[in-house]
Q: What sequence folds into this?
């Protein structure tokens, strides 16, 4: 996000956070133990016309409003050139692709953060497996203006992504709010490409920084921009057993809100990481409120000897809290009550 876009960006997000359901919910969907996927039914999407639907959006729209049983949408391999939106009332959806390099959803929306996403989910209780999400506006040989161009926007509580990929440049993945789990995913971008107020756990995933140059010169980008805004806000991004690599140089994160929180642990960091590591951005002078921490990482980018002096050193108890999926996002055991994804 450039400073000239900050006011527009702030206003858009303020409106969304006021009206979107990003709070915790105790609601869990009904599993069908007699089905191998534990779902009530499966519908199919095939761009070639050999399924129940030819577009993903039409399959989503077919699910009854207020649905309480897990429904699987099997999406065959192909490039689906469409914007997909899951509204609040379409709960309990399992999007099951053929693989993150086989099933792609692509669009080229841009300019406005809150309207550009290729994939948007407002609903709670969502599972996605084996799908690649792309915003093509700045991908490939062309280099358009650096503006928000999101691959995905996730607003509902209790969303899990397995073996998915997210491709963009600026603002690739808007982790808006709620508890989210990302397992063995690939996320690519250059400017704040994982951002938002999510309370999210990223495990065994790859973060690829791609914006080595922009315009006529080099560009130093940002991997995260987390939006925790108060001391009692439970949100934060935890990256455990991940790999951070790419081309060029990038900060691990910058503070989008006053209590921004990011923890990176047991991960491999390449030399793309700038030595200082972190940027207080709009909150210089209030760095004591930020929680940026690194623990037991390896690789040339993991050298913390030149990190900002205000980087946090967490206690063993704090690390145990953040680095456990169950303690950080899964207190109700909702992850164990999802459809079968193996």
A:
């Amino acid at each position: 996000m450039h400073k000239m876009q900050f006011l527009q960006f702030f206003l858009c997000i303020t409106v969304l956070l006021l009206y979107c359901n990003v709070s915790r919910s105790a609601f869990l969907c009904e599993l069908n133990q007699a089905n191998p996927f534990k779902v009530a039914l499966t519908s199919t999407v095939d761009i070639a016309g050999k399924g129940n639907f030819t577009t993903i959006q039409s399959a989503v729209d077919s699910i009854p409003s207020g649905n309480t049983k897990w429904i699987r949408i099997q999406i065959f391999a192909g490039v689906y050139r469409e914007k997909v939106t899951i509204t609040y009332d379409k709960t309990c959806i399992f999007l099951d692709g053929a693989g993150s390099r086989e099933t792609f959803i692509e669009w080229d929306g841009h300019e406005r953060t809150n309207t550009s996403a290729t994939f948007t989910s407002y609903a709670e209780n969502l599972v996605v497996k084996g799908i690649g999400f792309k915003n093509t506006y700045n991908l490939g040989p062309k280099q358009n203006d650096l503006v928000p161009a999101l691959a995905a926007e996730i607003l509902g509580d209790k969303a899990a992504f397995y073996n998915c990929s997210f491709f963009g440049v600026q603002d690739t993945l808007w982790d808006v709010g709620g508890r989210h789990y990302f397992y063995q995913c690939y996320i690519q971008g250059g400017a704040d490409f994982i951002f938002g107020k999510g309370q999210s756990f990223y495990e065994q995933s790859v973060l690829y920084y791609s914006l080595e140059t922009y315009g006529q010169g080099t560009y130093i980008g940002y991997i995260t921009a987390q939006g925790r805004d108060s001391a009692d806000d439970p949100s934060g991004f935890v990256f455990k057993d991940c790999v951070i690599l790419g081309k060029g140089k990038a900060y691990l994160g910058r503070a989008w809100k006053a209590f921004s929180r990011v923890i990176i642990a047991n991960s491999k960091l390449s030399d793309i990481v700038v030595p200082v590591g972190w940027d207080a951005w709009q909150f210089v002078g209030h760095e004591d409120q930020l929680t940026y921490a690194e623990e037991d990482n390896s690789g040339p980018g993991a050298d913390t000897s030149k990190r900002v002096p205000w980087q946090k050193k967490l206690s063993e108890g704090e690390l145990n809290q953040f680095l456990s999926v169950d303690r950080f996002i899964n207190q109700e055991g909702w992850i164990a009550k999802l459809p079968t994804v193996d």
User: Anything to note?
Assistant: The chain has a mean pLDDT of 93. The two ends are 37 Å apart (CA to CA). The chain has one domain: 3-330.
